Amino acid sequence: MERAVLVILPHPDDESFGLGGTIALHARAGTPVTYVCGTLGEMGRNMGNPFFATRETLSKVREKELREACRILGIKDLRLLGLRDKTIEFEDPNQIADQLKKIIIEINPSLIMTHYPGHGVHPDHDALGAATILAVSKLPKESRPTVHCHAITRNRIEVLGEPDVVVDIREVLDIKMAALRAHRSQTENMFKKWDHDPNAKSQLTERWSREVFWTYRFE
Q1: How far apart are CA 68 and CA 125, in angstroms?
Q2: Which of 33, 59, 117, 205 falls between 20 and 30 A from 87, CA-CA?
């Protein structure tokens, strides 16, 4: 059992798509989980289907969805960094890293989970993942927590090798799915297909029955 888990990702729903089952398992085991969410995803393209959000209201909609997803997953400590969606790559990484370092020292996690820099596909994923790695590197070696990284690129196994951690989440798959449904503005289309196409449901169930991570190895 981990002492505490700190999740650092840039967008509402990142936690549910890539890590939802793993987070739920940690929470079920009694491990405190803190989620540091970089932005409110206010530049997202999805507004629900049919639309129920606008560009002006999307940030409030997504924050509400995020808080509900956190409740479902068992995350009791949500921190919002207040960064602007789709612009993290243009921020000073040292400044973000210093913010994150303070949180790391406060929480004292034994495990941090973030995106693998260069393998996040979205620039925000890569930038906040890199800032997280930088924050941990600023800590004394003997006090650094383990960092598990989520990688999305198609060539991730070719470049990074086989994942170091494979988590079977079938026992909490229903929790992950409920958290994803909570992000209604972003997932409604996906679940319409899931709910009406048995083949799609079977494929997604198989795809999401495990979550994989790479341990970041500091020099």
Answers
A1: 22
A2: 33
At position 13, the amino acid (one-letter code) is D
**What whole-number distance in Å separates Cα of residue 131 and Cα of residue 195?**
38
Pick the closest to residue 81 from 69, 66, 71 (CA basis): 66
Q: What is the DSSP letter of 212?
A: E
Using CA atoms, how far apart are residues 82 and 183, in angstroms rounded to an integer?
A: 19
Q: Which residues contact 8 (CB under 8 A, 6 or more apart)?
A: 36, 38, 100, 112, 113, 114, 128, 129, 132
Q: What is the pLDDT of residues 73-107, one digit of tens each?
A: 999 999 999 999 999 999 999 999 999 999 999 99
CA distance 162 to 51: 40
The interaxial angle of helices 93-107 and 123-137, nearest 10 deg, is 60
How much is the pTM? 0.95
Examine residue 123 and say whether the peptide bond preceding it is cis (omega within 30 degrees of 0): no
CATH topology of domain 5-215: Rossmann fold (3.40.50)
pLDDT over 90 percentage in the chain: 82
Give yes or no for a contact between 41 and 11, defined as CB atoms under 8 angstroms apart: yes
Longest CA pairwise span in the chain (Å): 52
Cross-strand bridge partners of residue 78:
35
